[in-house]
Write a structure and sequence with these properties.
The chain is 4% helix and 51% strand. By secondary structure, the protein is mainly β. It has one domain: TolB, C-terminal domain (Neuraminidase), CATH 2.120.10. The longest helix is centred in the N-terminal third of the chain and has 11 residues. It is globular and about 50 Å long.
């Protein structure tokens, strides 16, 4: 069994510029409960808590809970006019995007009280950070790196696979120097080199959710979180009943 850390090392060693993107398989290590009422837009794991941002107007919110329970410790609802999108945690603050309103919200990570708001241009889809900058996706092939101090765009990177733009970049997670991303309406999770925007690896998660757990309500794969302390990659989907801890496996070995 290969640990995720070894898989990330493999990516760093074999996926330099000019090398084709590597294809990974996956193995389910464990699973945890997830509310089938959650239209998942953003997922983050920090300091023993799972933060989740959900969408749909009238149902959008940010919540905080333990991984092994769907009982929310804290939550904050958005007004009905807002459609919640991606979230990220940086410097004890939770940042949340909205889809079309071009307005984001900043919460205290401990209480989820609203601290302030911010604005940006265009759609808001996925959100992550590299410890210094926010990283925003807007449904195109572009990733925007944003200064959290004044919310100015510091740079923009185009995501490519085999030199072709990859659009519909959605939920984002920064993991050990790489950006993991869902492709909306796709079962594929891609791993992006942040400086060049090149997809260095990908994995097809079409078989992740067992058919016996799907209903007419079950929606697309969306939601990536990383437990840094225990090196756990966590993924889920909109209205899914489970969150899965998976390990990536190098298909070439």
């Amino acid at each position: 069994m290969r640990l995720l850390s070894l898989c990330l090392l493999s990516i760093a060693q074999f996926c330099w510029a000019g090398e084709p993107a590597k294809e990974y398989d996956f193995q389910v290590i464990n699973s945890f409960p997830h509310s089938t009422n959650s239209f998942t837009q953003g997922l983050e794991y920090r300091d023993g808590f799972l933060y989740e941002g959900t969408g749909k107007r009238g149902f959008s919110k940010i919540s905080k809970r333990r991984l092994n329970s769907v009982r929310e410790r804290d939550f904050s609802k958005l007004k009905k006019e807002y459609f919640g999108e991606g979230i990220t945690v940086l410097d004890n603050k939770v940042y949340q995007l909205t889809w079309k309103a071009q307005r984001g919200f900043i919460y205290d990570a401990k209480s989820l009280d609203v601290l302030s708001t911010f604005t940006y241009k265009g759609d808001g889809w996925g959100l992550s950070n590299n410890g210094k900058e926010l990283i925003l996706s807007n449904g195109s092939d572009k990733l925007q790196f944003i200064n959290p101090g004044d919310f100015s765009i510091t740079r923009t990177t185009s995501v490519t696979l085999d030199d072709k733009p990859v659009s519909r970049i959605n939920e984002l997670e920064w993991i050990n120097g790489h950006i993991y991303a869902n492709i909306w309406q796709s079962n594929r999770l891609v791993i992006i080199e942040p400086k060049t925007g090149k997809v260095t690896a990908y994995v097809d998660l079409a078989k992740l959710l067992p058919k016996k757990l799907t209903t007419a309500k079950t929606d697309v794969l969306n939601g990536i979180a990383y437990d840094k302390e225990h090196q756990r990659l966590l993924v889920t989907g909109k209205y899914w009943p489970r969150i899965f801890h998976i390990e990536l496996i190098d298909k070439t070995r």
